[in-house]
């Protein structure tokens, strides 16, 4: 077991990266990797739900819901993750008590890394200066990672959301350090795709997950031991008067049954906006053009 819900069973002492780390983008990766090679078990201390979900009651903005975030963190070489339930008790814990009870007594932190703008504790009164004075008092080392910029823009979860909302998957990839991905089980749709000559697997993603802008994307689809190219349509299917947003993947050059499988797709290129066609025939013609364009992009390495 490497993901814990409390500090009671963790391996100690710890070298701790502390933060929300939504998306585990390049800035987060620097904070997390700062613990590697430090004294103590490499550990990430984080929260779920995201404090913003807790306080706003809103959902649907996470770049990586909990399971996805944990696997991205473990892939960086971290030994254990402590995911504290963010609830009323935690929200009302004073910053200095959080340091004492969680970092010092709970994790026996020998080293702590945080990002330059990290805030924590009741009313978000805990900040990096306060952590620095705690480090002196409790004798742990601390590293505060400076703001990361790429091409003059701050690397941040909100900058990534803005890029994805406009279909700019290249910019999102630059800030994330990997392609944006969506994952879920394949469910049943309206059984219409196969009649169009383009069967589509309907991906059911967490309602907490941030969705990029509607449109058609070139993706890599991963399921079981398969890795294939696909066309991904995200939208309401205006040609059929749809209102509910669906996520559909047509796997290129492949046939088989996907119902019930877990699939992950990574967004590689935005092809076009979703359109309302005057007839099903025109939609089918466009689907053929989409496939041709995808094949050209794949052939030239995108
Ligand atoms: C690559 C691709 C592009 C698509 N583009 C559009 C579009 O522009 N407008 C639209 O109304 N539907 C679009 N669709 C959605 C089709 O209408 C949808 O796949 C079809 O209704 C089948 O739905 P089903 O899987 O629920 O049977 C697209 C589907 C794919 C795979
Ligand atoms: N190349 C393919 N890409 C995606 N799904 C495919 C493909 N070939 C066969 N399938 C199967 O067909 C199903 C989709 O057919 P479709 O008529 O669009 O039905 P539904 O509306 O239930 O998604 C997929 O869930 C999968 O099991």
Count of DSSP H/I helices: 10
Strand content: 25-35%
The counted number of beta strands is 14
CATH T-level fold name of the largest domain: Rossmann fold
- Taking the alpha carbons of the first and last residues, their distance comes to 39 Å
- The percent range for helix content is 25-40%
Given the C-alpha coordinates, what overall shape results? elongated
CATH superfamily heading of the largest domain = HUPs
How would you portray this structure in words?
There is one protein chain. This protein is α/β, with parallel strands linked by helices and 302 residues long. It folds into 2 domains: 3-153, Rossmann fold, CATH 3.40.50.620; 180-299, Riboflavin kinase-like (Elongation Factor Tu (Ef-tu), domain 3, Beta Barrel). Helix content is 30%, strand content 28%. The protein has 10 helices and 14 strands. It has a 6-stranded parallel sheet, sandwiched between helices. Strands 9-10-13-12-11-14 form a 6-stranded antiparallel β-barrel. The protein has a two-stranded antiparallel ribbon with strand order 7-8. Helix 7 runs antiparallel to helix 8. The two termini are 39 Å apart. Bound molecules: flavin mononucleotide (FMN) and adenosine-5'-diphosphate.
């Amino acid at each position: 077991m490497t993901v814990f819900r409390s500090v009671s069973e963790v391996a100690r002492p710890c070298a701790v990266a502390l933060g929300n780390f939504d998306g585990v983008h390049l800035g987060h990766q620097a904070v997390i990797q700062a613990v590697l090679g430090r004294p103590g078990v490499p550990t990430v201390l984080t929260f779920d739900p995201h404090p913003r979900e807790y306080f706003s009651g809103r959902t649907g903005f996470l770049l990586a819901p909990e399971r996805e975030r944990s696997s991205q963190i473990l892939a960086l070489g971290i030994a254990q993750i402590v995911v504290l339930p963010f609830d009323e008790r935690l929200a009302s814990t004073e910053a200095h008590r959080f340091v004492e009870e969680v970092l010092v007594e709970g994790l026996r932190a020998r080293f702590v890394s945080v990002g330059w703008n990290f805030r924590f504790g009741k009313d978000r009164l805990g900040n990096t200066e306060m952590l620095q004075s705690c480090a002196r008092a409790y004798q742990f080392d601390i590293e505060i990672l400076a703001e990361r910029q790429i091409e003059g823009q701050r690397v941040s979860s909100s900058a990534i959301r803005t890029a994805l909302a406009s279909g700019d998957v290249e910019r999102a990839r630059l800030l994330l350090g990997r392609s944006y991905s969506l994952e879920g089980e394949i469910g049943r749709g309206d059984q219409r795709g196969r009649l169009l000559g383009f069967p589509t697997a309907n991906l059911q993603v967490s309602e907490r997950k941030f969705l990029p802008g509607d449109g058609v994307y070139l993706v890599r689809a991963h399921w079981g031991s398969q890795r294939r190219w696909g066309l991904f349509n995200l939208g309401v299917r205006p040609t059929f008067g749809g209102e509910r947003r669906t996520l559909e993947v047509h796997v290129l050059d492949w046939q088989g049954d996907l119902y019930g499988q877990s699939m992950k797709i990574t967004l590689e290129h935005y092809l076009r906006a979703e359109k309302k066609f005057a007839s099903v025939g025109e939609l089918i013609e466009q689907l053929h053009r989409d496939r041709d364009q995808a094949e050209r992009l794949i052939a030239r390495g995108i």
